[in-house]
Amino acid sequence: MTAKAMSNSQPQRKVGAREKSAETTRDSLLRAAIKVFAKHGFDGGSIDQISKAANSHDRMIYYYFGNKESLFVAALEEIYRRFNVAEAALKLDLAQPKLALEQVVRFVLHYYKKHPEFVTLLNSENLHRGKHIARSNKAQEFSSPAISVVDEVLRRGIAQGSFRATVASRDLYMMIVALGYFYQSNRFTLSAFLGEDLETPAVFEQWETFVIDAVLRTVLTPAAL
Known about the structure:
Residues 46-65 bind DNA. This protein is mainly α. It has eleven helices and no strands. It has helices at 3-9, 17-44, 47-53, 58-65, 68-88, 97-114, 116-127, 139-160, 169-185, 187-194, 201-219.
């Protein structure tokens, strides 16, 4: 029997099985961390709570992430990554910049609504003055794709003459996320203050319509209004 035949006759070891198992464990711990930190914040969330939520052990968290702070950084990076993945899946009609911009606004508002953990984790990090995300080497990598979507839509609109050339993509992006973020992060206190439930679909839809109108009025030229 030739060496090649002998090799083919031997059972093949499953390549990457160990790596796949390690990745599964790490992902499970990360998902649990996001849930725990979103509920309790960085200070209130503990290694023990996270390991139990992941049906794992404390030592596995230290093995994959090193410490609680590094795990929190990884959680922040993961929620930004998820946002970018979801945004990248948008099918924007760039031939119609106004419609595309409406799609972007709707996406942001609905993403915050469907993923409250995104907002609560960022709230927790802002209480710490951004000291954890400042340790991340990926923070700016995640911001670039998000802003680039708005930038491309804005450039198309300017080229067509329907958008004002004086609007900066960074400012427009911050306007959109601010209007979506504030509504979601303050919905409970605002509901009590205003005397109406901001989680009611009709109220949310009214706000969505208002935000779209505000964003369009900011970018559209007088002739396009």
